[in-house]
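Same chain as my last thread, 228 residues:
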Amino acid sequence: MARIEAVNEQTLIVYFGDRIDDAIAADVNRAIFQVRESLGDLVTDIIPSYNSMLIGFDLNRTDRFDIIKRIRLALESNTDAVTNNNDNQVVEIPVYYGEEVALDMSDVCDKTGLDSESVIKLHSEKEYRVYAIGFSPGFAYLGSLDDAIVMPRKSTPRLKVPTGSVGLADNQTAIYPSSTPGGWQIIGRTPLNMVDWDSESLAKVNVGNKVRFCPIDKDEFLKQGGVL
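reply #2:
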């Protein structure tokens, strides 16, 4: 049973668990569709996270007690056919893992005891779930890493991480959609633009999607528009 708590007069947070795993992430993803389908424009905003979602609602058309009742009814509805499509969508992301862009590969190798080829193999062989979008537009938190390449964040964050950089932090991986400060351990770079300004969500990937990283060489990286 989901736990619903008030954040302020027109915002609620719905908790589906207290840990990060695929089953709870699937519950969050399903709930997004259930609430949107059942409540329509009564809901002004939905922000999903690892095990919860923040819901904003139109205070001129409903109140906290009514919206909580509506949300509980929505969560009991059946939208499996809709959410399964999103859950099954796999987005392939090309990544160049060359030394020019893998700014922290040597540190990752030192800390894990692996060579770069092994790190690349472990990183690219897994399929990751998009748990949340945040930090900056299009920044997707993906999990979970193979235990062998779980890495702490950098003790001193960079002031500017290049656009498209692929990094590791704790048991997650992510892509920097724009050049921002950051403390993730950078092991590669994608030539893709991770922000789609023509889409409703802005992000190239959405919560519930799966992501697979596909290694490419330097020539292919440049051919696809990558910048060194």
